[in-house]
Design goal:
Length: 410
């Protein structure tokens, strides 16, 4: 976010330059349209001029279009003069600098081409030819005024540069104060924990290793969320930095133990719990959920980390099997067994892509099997091949004796 704030002024400058370039391109295109068919055409920052059919026309760019200011018939031209911009009637001299205006004299009129003056230049005037000798002999009464104008313009530029520097310095100082001093966490009360009945603010601060004061912009929400999710008994963590007022908001979704679990460890058989996603929970983590209903009855034996996805799939379908699920057992080689209250042991085989079909078949057998076995209790079911399920039934008694035994029926 710091980098975004630093690049924001450059983005604004880029947008401004793009807009100015577009305006200048549009101005040039409109000038081409206005000067179309002319023999000569000239465009500068002050305006534009074109020559066509013996008539010299000049215009100015106003309100998004070129507005023709005046015309002069070239065949009536008697003389042309270059005059300083603000020197009244004084001609341009060697010491004059900056903008100037062109005066065209002829046909009893004189007309000025250039930036507007304090008074209109167009109108009737005496025919006054100007020669180079006459220009050299004039002392230049406006020289001092032009010098003062140049000094005034230089002072204005210095003032504008000074204002820009002050504005940039003030902006930089304000940004430093906001980033370095304003947006910081100074006490634990600025950490908000929402959505959890098990995790306290002190646990959050301890697991996140927060040391106050801490800069709010230095905290990485994704990294902090991953760190808290790995250390706390929660399913989901969302970390949000809030600027006004500065605080850290942490939204949690608590884990809820849905089954007791046993899993092999290097020290033997470990006792714990699992949530609905198959994640292991220690007894200490489960103790925070005692007020939510106590320990569950379902048992998961043989829990292993890499078997969490199929375990989560079975737990999600446990209410749709048609029979109460008592135990989920994983063999060391990964074979999956279920023990239900009405169907007994159910072998599902390796937890592969057919696990969903096997669970569907188990749900179907739970609803249809009771009417087909005529009251016999099913001892086991093998669904490792969902297309050819096998049932293990008790042996039929021998005709000669009540306690006889016989082979099972599949």
């Amino acid at each position: 976010m710091i980098h975004g704030l630093l690049w924001l002024p450059l983005l604004l400058v880029f947008v401004l330059l793009t807009a100015l370039g577009w305006l200048e391109r549009r101005r040039q295109q409109l000038f081409r349209d206005w000067a179309e068919g002319a023999e000569l055409a000239k465009l500068d920052s002050c305006g534009g001029a074109k020559l066509g059919g013996g008539i010299l026309s000049w215009s100015a760019f106003e309100a998004g279009q070129w507005v023709e200011k005046d015309q002069f018939l070239v065949k009536t031209l008697e003389c042309a003069e270059l005059l300083a911009l603000r020197s009244g009637e004084a001609p341009l001299t060697d010491e004059a600098h900056g903008a100037c205006r062109l005066r065209l004299v002829g046909g009893g009129l004189h007309k000025d081409l250039g930036p507007p003056l304090d008074r209109p230049a167009d109108g009737p005037g005496p025919l006054r030819p100007v020669s180079p000798l006459e220009t050299e002999r004039r002392p230049g009464p406006g020289a001092e005024r032009r010098r003062q104008l140049r000094l005034q313009r230089r002072n204005q530029r210095l003032q504008e540069i000074w204002r820009v520097l002050v504005l940039v310095g003030a902006s930089a100082g304000l940004g430093w104060v906001l980033l370095g001093q304003g947006w910081s966490l100074r006490s634990p009360t600025q950490v908000e924990v929402v959505g959890s009945r098990q995790v306290s603010r002190e646990q959050i601060i301890q697991e996140a290793r927060l040391r106050f004061p801490v800069q709010l912009l230095n905290l990485q929400p994704r990294q902090l969320a991953a760190q808290l999710a790995a250390a706390l008994p929660v399913e989901n963590v969302q970390v949000t930095r809030l600027m006004l007022p500065p605080r850290l908001r942490i939204d949690l979704v608590d884990r809820k133990a849905v089954a007791r679990a046993e899993g092999p460890t290097g020290r033997g058989l470990d006792q714990g719990y699992v949530d609905r996603l198959g994640n292991w929970m220690t007894s200490r983590q489960q103790s925070g959920a005692n007020g939510l209903g106590g320990a569950p009855l379902l048992l998961v034996s043989g829990w292993q980390e890499h078997l969490r996805p199929p375990l989560a799939q079975v737990l999600g379908r446990s209410g749709q099997l048609g029979s109460t699920l008592l135990e989920i057992h994983f063999e060391p080689n990964g074979n999956l067994w279920l023990i239900t209250s009405s169907l007994g042991k159910v072998r599902l085989g390796q937890p592969d892509g057919q696990l969903g079909r096997r669970l569907d078949m188990l749900s179907h057998l739970s609803s249809q099997l009771a009417s087909r076995v005529k009251g016999l209790k099913v001892q086991s079911i093998d669904l490792s091949d969902p297309d050819h399920p096998e049932l293990g039934l008790p042996p039929k008694p021998r005709p000669g004796g009540p306690g006889g035994s016989g082979p099972g029926v599949d």
